[in-house]
Amino acid sequence: FNIDVNNAFLQYPDMPAALEDVNLHIESKNTGPKTTNQSLLINPLHFAVNKKSIDGNLSILQLETDPHISGKLKGDILLEDFAKFMPLEPGVTLSGSISNDIAFDFLQSQVQKNLYDEIKFEGKSNLSNIQYKDPTMPLVQIPTLDLSYSPKQISISDSKLLLGKSDLAISGFLSNPLALVVKNSETSGKIKLTSNKMDINEWTSSEESESETADNQSMLDLAHKLNIEIESTFGELNYDTYNLSNLTFNGKYAKDNLAMNQCQFQLNGDQLKLNGNIQDLMAYVYENKTLSGAI
Q1: Which residue has the higher pLDDT, 87 or 215?
Q2: How sure is the predictor about 288, in pLDDT bands with cuts at 50, 70 and 90?
Q3: Is 157 in contact with 187 (CB distance < 8 Å)?
Q4: Which long-range contacts (CB under 8 A, 24 or more apart) does 12-15 make?
């Protein structure tokens, strides 16, 4: 089938801004009786909000055998403009900017075999002065977050997040990053986390919707793709009734198992040092599975 949209615009009633200059071509086809030659093409993809445009394209060939995925995305998004175009829930406000300039071209087999010289994946993203305010959750702010892309890794730098009462700085890298979007592959890397205060309690909820259940499965699938070294420092960490201070951690998270090479913190005036491992960590968080391991 084919879908073509030419020089269109979309505007919600009573909203001051419109989605303008919409140009879109979507083509999906299969050249045989089976789905082995199924393909999807989106080219062009173009739209603008308040004169700021987004351009991109996407091609997925031989979808059921060795998918060949290529495309690009380029443009700047002012979230204030999108808030003027798209109705938000009462009390919700959104601001800040997102800039992307990304291009990619790869086969699934190239990612699985780590053939970086044959893969195209390049560009950068920047988030600046992001603020999301929702009366049902703590305030989320991202003063700055920079990402750069290459076939070998995604680098994270100059990142600062404010999550309600909590603050968090993140730096590091993920190797073989395209493994996150292909089957039977994993990504490794190293992440450094620094926080003056982390209050996990304000992000926990006893209620769960059907959509959250689907998201939980996605998080579990992602957990089994990761092999990440972690270095972290928290001045204060609050979880349930526990208030930890001066926490430092060095370890590795791989296939939903957390290895603690060194972990030390203060609790109720006592200095504690731990090492060991915890298995099925995300399964415990998202599926209420039983934790196991040795500490």
Answers
A1: 87
A2: confident
A3: no
A4: 12/85, 12/86, 12/87, 15/84, 15/85, 15/86, 15/87
* Token reading at 92: 């919700």
User: What's the Rg (C-alpha) of the chain?
Assistant: 22
Peptide bond into 44 cis (omega under 30): yes
Q: Going by DSSP bridges, is the β-strand pair 140-149/120-133 parallel, antiparallel, or unpaired?
A: antiparallel
Q: Which residues pair with 125 in a beta bridge?
A: 100, 147
Q: Going by DSSP bridges, is the β-strand pair 226-239/242-254 parallel, antiparallel, or unpaired? A: antiparallel
Instruction: Read off the pLDDT of residues 199-253 as tens digits, 9 standing for 90 and up.
Output: 999 987 645 555 455 567 778 888 888 999 999 999 999 988 999 999 999 999 9
- DSSP symbol at 128: E
Interacting residues of 102 by C-beta distance below 8 A, sequence separation 6+: 72, 73, 74, 122, 123, 124, 125, 149
Which two three-digit tokens encode residue 125?
């993203």
SS3 of 11, please?
coil
What's the predicted TM-score (pTM) here?
A: 0.85
What's the length of the chain? 295
Least confident of 31-45, 107-121, 272-286: 31-45
Burial label for 179, CB within 10 Å (0-12, 13-18, 19+), is buried
d(CA 116, CA 118): 5
Instruction: List the helix and strand counts (H, then E) for the chain.
Output: 4, 17
